[in-house]
Amino acid sequence: MSTKTxxxxxxxxxxxxxxxxxxxxxxxxxxALEAMRRSKRGSVLVCKSDKLTGIFTERDVLNRCLLEKPPxxxxxxxxxxxSPAAAGPETRLGEAVELMHEKGARNIPIxxxxxxxxxxxxxxxxxxxxxxxxxxxxxxxxxxxHQTTRDTEGA
Length: 155
Prior knowledge:
two-stranded antiparallel sheet
């Protein structure tokens, strides 16, 4: 089995997942933004009684909140993406990548069998993990073999 194939068959529990940043459904929009800012993350997982019920991301801020301008006191449950696509720790990386592609998601919550968040898989984490499994020669190849520039640099 090639390195590339074995990397895609790796279970998510073996990857270095980001610890989840969690807010309760009753948290305000302002509290969710503050949690994202404080943790330097692009998303928060929204829970009710420790169970994942939604996700709130930078995309939600850009696509919904900047246009609608909800008050910072708005409960995050009204602004979140409900029932987000999620994966379990036993899910294979290739399956998670397919799920991300299918749903157009850049963040996939990893939940246990009871729906409790255990981590967050991001596109960046996938890229870093896969890049670690390719030889340096492949990572450093130009996008097109034998690529050259037409213009002299600095001209």
